[in-house]
Specification:
39% helix, alpha+beta, four-stranded antiparallel beta sheet, 9 strands, TATA-Binding Protein, 3 domains, five-stranded antiparallel beta sheet
Length: 304
C-alpha cells in the first residue's frame, strides 16, 4: 500500500480499506505512476503534489524536497492546514544542527588524531577527497559526507534521509578516516567469521542481525535489488539475488539473499572482504552492517 508523496498514510485511510480509493504511493513508486494514470483517465488531471514528486523523482515531499512546503500545498485545501505548513517553514529556517552531539564520547579524541594526520596521506589511504576548508569529502553508500576538522562536525552533503544510519554515519566516517583503510581490499569475499582467523568476532554484542532483512525480502528478489540499487549497491551473481555495497570506498560488503521455499526459511548471508581486518576496526564494522540492514528495510518501503 505505502504512504503517499504528501505524507498521508493510505494504509490507515478508511476509503482505502473499503476499496473505494487506491493507494497514492510515493513519488518514486509504481503505485504512484498508476495513481497518476488513473486520475488523468478519470478526471483529466492528476494530483499536482504527486505529479510534481514523480517528475522530480522524490519519494516524499516533507522528507526529501528542499522546496517543501511549496505552492502546491499552499494553493490546495488539503492535505495540510496553513498552521502546519507555517510551523514546518518556521522550523526549517532554524539553525541547522550538526552531528557532533551524536558522537560517542569515548571516540571524540579521534578528532585530535585526525587533525595531526597529513591530509594527503589520509586521502590516499581512504580515497577521500580534500574539501576547501581543510577537511574531507567522503563517499558512503549513495551519500556524500563532509568531515570538517576545524569545527569537528560531520555533515551530509548529498543523499536522502537515512534514518538511524544518519545518526551513526558521522562516527563511522571518523573511524574510517583515522583507523580504516590500512590496506587495499583483496577482492575476495568471505564470511565474517573467517575474517579474524581462529575467532568468530561477530557474536554476542557484535552479532549481525539479518532477521529484519529476511522478513522484508524473503519472498521478493526484485524488492531487494531495487532497495540495494537505491543505496548504491551493485548487482552480483550469487544466491537468488545479491548486491555489493561500498560502505566506504575501501570497505565493501556483499549481501546474498536466498528466498524462502517449502523446506527452508529465507536467509541473508553477508560477506566481507578477506582483508577487512586491515580495512576497518571490527567493533565498528558490526555497527555499520547493522545500520545498513536497517536502512535497506527502510528504503524498501519506497517501493511497496
Amino acid at each position: 500500500m505505502g504512504t503517499g508523496a504528501c505524507g498521508i498514510d493510505c494504509a490507515v485511510c478508511r476509503l482505502h480499506t473499503m476499496g473505494l480509493c487506491s493507494s497514492c504511493g510515493s513519488g518514486t513508486s509504481l503505485a504512484g505512476e498508476r495513481k497518476i494514470a488513473a486520475q488523468l483517465d478519470l478526471f483529466g488531471m492528476a494530483c499536482t503534489i504527486l505529479e510534481c514528486a514523480s517528475e522530480k523523482k522524490i519519494s516524499y515531499c516533507n522528507r526529501d524536497c528542499g522546496s517543501f512546503p511549496c505552492e502546491h500545498y499552499r494553493k490546495g485545501p488539503y492535505p495540510f492546514s496553513e498552521g502546519f505548513l507555517s510551523m514546518q517553514e518556521r522550523r526549517r529556517e532554524q539553525k541547522e544542527t550538526t552531528c557532533k552531539h551524536d558522537m560517542p564520547k569515548a571516540v571524540l579524541h579521534l578528532w585530535d588524531e585526525l587533525e595531526t594526520r597529513d591530509r594527503a596521506e589520509v586521502c590516499k589511504r581512504t580515497l577521500a577527497t580534500p574539501s576547501g576548508n581543510g577537511g574531507y569529502i567522503l563517499k558512503s553508500l549513495c551519500d556524500t559526507w563532509e568531515v570538517d576538522v576545524e569545527s569537528t562536525t560531520v555533515k551530509k552533503q548529498q543523499g536522502g534521509n537515512g534514518g538511524e544510519w544518519d545518526r551513526f554515519a558521522p562516527f563511522l566516517c571518523l573511524v574510517y578516516l583515522t583507523k580504516g583503510a590500512g590496506g587495499k581490499p583483496s577482492g575476495v569475499m568471505a564470511a565474517p567469521r573467517d575474517v579474524l582467523p581462529g575467532r568468530d568476532f561477530f557474536t554476542g554484542e557484535h552479532r549481525i542481525e539479518t532477521q529484519n532483512l529476511e522478513d522484508t525480502f524473503g519472498h521478493d528478489t526484485a524488492l531487494f535489488l531495487e532497495s540495494a540499487q537505491a543505496l548504491g549497491g551493485e548487482k552480483t551473481d550469487r544466491g537468488d539475488a545479491s548486491a555489493i555495497f561500498n560502505i566506504f570506498p575501501r570497505l565493501p560488503a556483499e549481501y546474498i539473499l536466498w528466498l524462502a521455499d517449502d523446506e527452508f526459511p529465507a536467509k541473508v548471508t553477508i560477506l566481507l572482504d578477506k582483508q577487512s581486518l586491515s580495512l576497518y576496526p571490527l567493533d565498528a564494522t558490526d555497527v555499520a552492517l547493522n545500520m545498513l540492514n536497517e536502512r535497506l528495510v527502510m528504503v524498501s518501503r519506497d517501493f511497496l
